[in-house]
Design a protein that fits this description.
The complex is a heterodimer.
Chain A lengths: L3 E2 L4 E5 L4 E7 L6 E7 L6 E7 L4 E4 L2 E6 L4 E6 L8 E8 L5 E3 L3 E6 L1
Parallel strand pairs in A: 2-11
Antiparallel strand pairs in A: 1-3, 3-8, 4-5, 4-9, 6-7, 7-8, 9-10, 9-11
Chain B lengths: L3 E4 L2 E4 L5 E7 L5 E7 L5 E8 L2 E5 L6 E7 L2 E6 L8 E8 L10 E2 L3 E5 L1
Parallel strand pairs in B: 2-11
Antiparallel strand pairs in B: 1-3, 3-8, 4-5, 4-9, 5-6, 7-8, 9-10, 9-11
The chains are: A mainly beta, B mainly beta.
Chain lengths: 111, 115
């Protein structure tokens, strides 16, 4: 039973355009929502998070939007750069500090 | 200096053997974790320790035994290895419980192949 779902296994975006990665969740008790980025043969690295009491958080080229009524969050990357090509994991954290990850979306930035 | 380091990076072994993966963090964090990434690419939490105390223990077979000699180390010992144990195992650390906003620091992973 997947509590965090990333329904797109991959996404290709032209360099300079906006990349939008989507994520759905089932448990409305999650405290924080997170995005991690992973390069091959490396561990995931934390990218950005958003508290469940907010609907938007921005950090440079990265913005995360949270729609609690739809139980949906998205990560926007603008402008997309070649170094953004990676696997992006959506994750959620409950009050027990347990972090649950989605399956990941592979983002390809095209030249 | 690597913040979270785990050894070995690759491990190939026969079914039925016992093996260990070691993890160390030099970030001064109180909480450490083991995650498993299986062939379907899901990253699933296995265990977490806070200051040497077991906090999270998911439904993992008891062939898997974590050991935390101090808060900077969390080792994973696996007995009687099975084919289904083949996966990449990631160690991670974070600030202490209750102050963490979800930022985990991961090691590079240890790829275990059971033949």
């Amino acid at each position: 039973d997947q509590q965090v779902k990333q329904n797109s296994p991959s996404l290709s975006v032209q360099e300079g355009r906006i990349s939008i990665l989507n994520c759905d969740y089932t448990n409305s008790m999650f405290d924080y929502f997170l995005w991690y980025k992973k390069y091959p043969a490396e561990g995931p690295t934390f990218l950005i998070s958003i508290s469940s009491i907010k609907d938007k958080n921005e950090d440079g080229r990265f913005t995360v939007f949270l729609n609690k009524s739809a139980k949906h969050l998205s990560l926007h990357i603008v402008p997309s750069q070649p170094g953004d090509s990676a696997v992006y994991f959506c994750a959620s954290m409950n009050r027990d500090d347990k972090i649950i990850f989605g399956k990941g979306t592979r983002l390809h930035i095209l030249p | 200096d690597t913040a979270v380091s785990q050894t070995p990076k690759y491990l190939v072994t026969q079914m039925g053997n016992d093996k260990s993966i070691k993890c160390e963090q030099n970030l001064g964090h109180d909480t450490m974790y083991w995650y498993k990434q299986d062939s379907k690419k899901f990253l699933k939490i296995m265990f977490s320790y806070n200051n040497k105390e077991l906090i999270i223990n998911e439904t993992v077979p008891n062939r898997f035994s974590p050991k935390s000699p101090d808060k900077a180390h969390l080792n994973l010992h696996i007995n009687s290895l099975e084919l289904g144990d083949s996966a990449v195992y990631f160690c991670a650390s974070s600030r202490r419980l209750g102050t963490n906003t979800g930022e985990l620091f991961f090691g590079e992973g240890s790829r275990l192949t059971v033949l």
